[in-house]
């Protein structure tokens, strides 16, 4: 689960060019155009941003931009066929606007072609006069989140169909931080959301307790072929210049012996840090709940071997984490040309042995890193460092850097609800499973199952082909109006199912020895277009056409637009996208009335 975490809008512009697709996938647009677009990206970025901002104010009826608004560019995307997309966050009278994000679309001549917006209304609040003081708001936030409140900042809360003056407060508790939004006029707590991103929801943990279930997955399961680094070069064990890249071996808990690119700091001394992947590193939290990566202890050794395949060695879990993190980076780079989680060529980071008996793992936007618990010793008896968990959670980081999909509400136990949050969970499952396919590790068979190595009685946590086979979370196969307020992991089945149908089609199928049998709501037969093309479409939709409030029907539109961009409006791929969504009961005909 990714927690809404509103950051400063004064950010540098990242320029993204379209990827050439997954291996063997041809994208629309001649390669010469792609080369020209890529070469001119940096010099054209400012012009594209200014054209998009001008277009937004020139088309106010469509974009919802009004007097007092300012648009701050978060991302500039230049596509091979010539389209340009600029993702903006918004301020109003100098105040950050929650739920005010939008994407302005331009053609190759920088002419306006459309907008994707989170708020379907103008964001100006009825009043800009606060009745609560900042101190009063901070006190209410501290009471709501049960922790120590930081300073309160005035914002405009334009989420969920409203537009209200509010205070945003970060509250620090014993083990985590929450972002609390307090109405500046009424004093009502509008939202109270954890900033960290837990793989296992409170609702699931309670379900496991009720079932009396424990998860004790097998570890130390033999060797896999060592694998060389992808992003860097010059790995050598015979250098006298330090620090330098070295070829190490991770003796992991879950994927056998794997190759890891490490750093040789001096003769006979090594660190679990990958210089070929932006300095990506895993550290030891040593049981603390720190959210500062720098506070973690470095993994160092006098041999370039990490772990022993068992929990008796603290570096075993670190080897799994480092392998999973680097494979996730490699997947995103090789598949989409994405350079790091935020596409900024910066390290991805992880800390293992986080907290005391923590049965969870999560993406933490506070430290921009993965945090892994060791399990509670009772219900979960091993560290949660399996490959698809890492791929899932780091994908939340990708979503955090792009669409920032947010739940519509969070209950008092920390469970999240709503379609945008469910779509976030679904994308994490979709791309997490793709990380497995990319890694193609013989000790972790690539599949469309999530958490199959956690040791659960039902043999998986979630699955994409027939989501309702997950009885622990009550995941759903099809959309209905109730999906709008369904717990996000349960609701994720709608779009995960649509993705599977798009990729592999309906009915029975065996892939890598795993049997699938995907049903459809309308009893239709869907013929899949292949995982490569389906993944390309969903990634393009996420980065170009999804915003913080995108629901399932908007996701349908986003993937149709992506398919049109990549393959054409008359293509089999485009038509199959429409069929796949209809097969999970997401259609034009049952689109709900606007909620915003």
From TrEMBL:
- A single GO BP annotation from the record? proteolysis
Q: Which residues form the Peptidase M4 C-terminal domain?
A: 418-586
The cofactor named in the record is:
Zn(2+)
| Keyword hit for Chloroplast | no
Q: Which Gene3D superfamilies match?
A: 3.10.170.10, 3.10.450.40, 3.10.450.490, Neutral Protease Domain 2 (1.10.390.10)
Sequence ranges assigned to domain Peptidase M4 in this UniProt record: 248-399
Domain (FTP): residue spans on this chain: 72-107
Q: Where in the cell is it found?
A: Secreted
Entry's SUPFAM superfamilies?
Answer: Metalloproteases ('zincins'), catalytic domain
One cellular component term (GO) for this entry is: extracellular region
Question: Is-annotated flag, keyword Signal?
Answer: yes
Q: Which domain of life is it from?
A: Bacteria
Composition skew (Basic and acidic residues), residue ranges: 271-286
Molecular function terms, GO-annotated? metal ion binding; metalloendopeptidase activity
Similarity section? Belongs to the peptidase M4 family.
Q: What is the designated name of this protein?
A: Neutral metalloproteinase
């Amino acid at each position: 689960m990714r927690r809404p975490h509103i950051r400063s809008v004064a950010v540098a512009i990242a320029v993204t060019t379209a990827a050439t697709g997954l291996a063997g996938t041809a994208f629309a647009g001649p390669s010469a155009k792609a080369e020209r677009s890529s070469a001119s990206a940096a010099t054209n970025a400012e012009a594209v941003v200014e054209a998009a901002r001008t277009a937004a104010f020139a088309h106010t009826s469509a974009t919802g931009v009004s007097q007092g608004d300012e648009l701050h560019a978060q991302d500039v995307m230049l596509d091979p066929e010539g389209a340009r997309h600029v993702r903006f966050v918004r301020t109003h009278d100098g105040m950050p606007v929650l739920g005010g994000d939008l994407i302005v679309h331009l053609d190759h001549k920088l002419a306006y072609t459309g907008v994707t917006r989170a708020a379907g209304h103008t964001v100006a609040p009825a009043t800009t006069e606060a009745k609560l003081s900042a101190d009063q708001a901070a006190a209410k936030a501290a009471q709501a989140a049960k922790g120590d409140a930081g300073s309160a900042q005035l914002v405009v809360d334009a989420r969920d169909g409203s537009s209200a003056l509010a205070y945003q407060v970060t509250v620090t508790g014993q083990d985590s931080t929450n972002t609390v939004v307090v109405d500046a006029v009424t004093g009502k707590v509008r939202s109270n959301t954890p900033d960290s991103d837990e793989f296992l929801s409170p609702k699931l943990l309670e379900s496991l307790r009720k079932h009396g279930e424990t998860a004790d997955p097998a570890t130390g399961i033999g060797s896999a072929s060592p694998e060389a680094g992808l992003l860097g070069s010059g790995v050598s064990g015979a250098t006298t210049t330090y620090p330098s890249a070295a070829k190490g071996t991770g003796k992991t808990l879950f994927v056998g012996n794997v190759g890891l690119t490490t750093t040789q700091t001096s003769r006979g001394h090594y660190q679990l840090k990958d210089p070929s992947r932006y300095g990506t590193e895993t550290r030891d939290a040593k049981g603390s709940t720190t959210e500062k990566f720098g506070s973690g202890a470095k993994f160092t050794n006098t041999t370039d071997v990490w772990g022993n395949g068992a929990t008796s060695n603290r570096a075993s879990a670190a080897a799994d984490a480092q392998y999973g993190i680097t494979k996730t980076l490699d997947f995103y780079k090789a598949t989409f040309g994405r350079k790091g989680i935020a596409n900024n060529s910066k390290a991805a980071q992880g800390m293992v042995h986080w907290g005391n008996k923590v049965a969870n793992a999560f993406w933490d936007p506070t430290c921009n890193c993965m945090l892994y618990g060791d399990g509670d010793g009772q219900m979960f008896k091993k560290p949660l460092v399996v490959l698809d968990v890492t791929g899932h959670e780091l994908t939340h980081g990708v979503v955090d850097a792009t669409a920032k999909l947010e739940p519509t509400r969070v209950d008092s136990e920390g469970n999240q609800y709503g379609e945008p949050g469910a779509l976030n969970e679904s994308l994490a499952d979709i791309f997490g499973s793709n990380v497995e396919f990319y890694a193609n590790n013989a000790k972790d068979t690539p599949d469309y199952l999530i958490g199959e190595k956690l040791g659960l009685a039902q043999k998986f946590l979630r699955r994409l082909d027939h989501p309702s086979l997950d009885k622990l979370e009550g995941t759903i196969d099809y959309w209905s109006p109730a999906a709008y307020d369904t717990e996000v992991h349960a609701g994720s089945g709608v779009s995960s199912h649509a993705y599977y149908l798009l990729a592999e089609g309906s009915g029975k199928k065996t892939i890598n020895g795993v049997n699938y049998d995907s049903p459809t709501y309308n009893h239709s037969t869907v013929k899949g277009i292949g995982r490569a093309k389906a993944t390309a479409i969903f990634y393009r939709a996420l980065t170009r056409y999804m915003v913080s409030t995108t629901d399932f029907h908007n996701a349908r539109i986003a993937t149709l637009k992506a398919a049109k961009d990549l393959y054409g409006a008359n293509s089999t791929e485009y038509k199959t996208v429409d069929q796949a969504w209809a097969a999970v009961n997401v259609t034009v005909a049952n689109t709900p009335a606007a909620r915003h």
